[in-house]
Design the sequence.
């Protein structure tokens, strides 16, 4: 499926897909992204993925007619990319001490804490894009029964490593920040290090699996030297 093209400014274009969020759509987005990088290499400053969009930031203006003609000329089968196979295993301590909203959310869903943990940790989540904060992964694949609207009043401080649910998504706060998602646990791993050449090891299209650990294991891992990145 070819995307629609929207010219926002002379230096910013947005490509939009009218399709459900899925692995297939992400394949199309990544393949389309590769085609843009090849075709407009001398113009492209940055490409930013969203669930159903791809934003293109240009270093110099490019006429909308040029973009539209190019999109019309490409063959749809030519921009279906492949998704990487790597799965990152992320240890998570699900407890009231590491996830302040865990019990409240379980009560709201009329399930036990153990059921919520099982429902959240049994899924494989696909990384669709990064946003909100540097290193913040937008993960698709949350069990529909755990879908929960964001908080009406955001928390002023969310600890780094917090695992949370917001809407139909789950994610990990890479750094301490304000946030409006429901906190259900925390990982002892550091998933973002701006001092590193590659601050985030995971890539778009890869998958994440959450592995429940005890509070004792969490404390033990916290006492060890900081682990930068993921345990694959």
Sequence:
């Amino acid at each position: 499926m070819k995307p629609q093209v929207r010219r926002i400014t002379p230096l910013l274009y947005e490509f939009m897909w009218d399709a459900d969020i899925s692995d297939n759509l992400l394949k199309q987005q990544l393949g389309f992204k590769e085609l843009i990088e090849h075709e407009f290499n001398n113009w492209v400053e940055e490409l930013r993925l969203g669930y159903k969009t791809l934003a293109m930031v240009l270093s110099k203006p490019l006429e909308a007619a040029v973009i539209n003609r190019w999109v019309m000329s490409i063959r749809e089968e030519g921009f279906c990319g492949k998704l990487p196979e790597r799965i990152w295993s992320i240890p998570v301590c699900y407890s009231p001490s590491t996830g302040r909203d865990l019990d409240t959310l379980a009560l709201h869903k009329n399930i036990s804490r153990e059921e919520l943990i099982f429902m959240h940790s049994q899924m494989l989540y696909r990384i669709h894009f990064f946003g909100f904060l540097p290193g913040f992964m937008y993960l698709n694949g949350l069990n529909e029964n755990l879908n929960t609207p964001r908080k009406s009043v955001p928390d002023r401080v969310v600890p780094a490593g917090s695992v949370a649910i917001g809407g139909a998504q789950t994610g990990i706060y890479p750094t301490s920040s304000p946030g409006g998602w429901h906190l259900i646990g925390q990982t002892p791993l550091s998933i973002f290090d701006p001092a590193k050449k590659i601050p985030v090891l995971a890539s778009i299209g890869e998958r994440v699996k959450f592995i429940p650990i005890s509070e004792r294991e969490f404390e033990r891992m916290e006492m060890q030297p900081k682990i930068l990145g993921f345990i694959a």
In short: The longest helix spans residues 23-39.
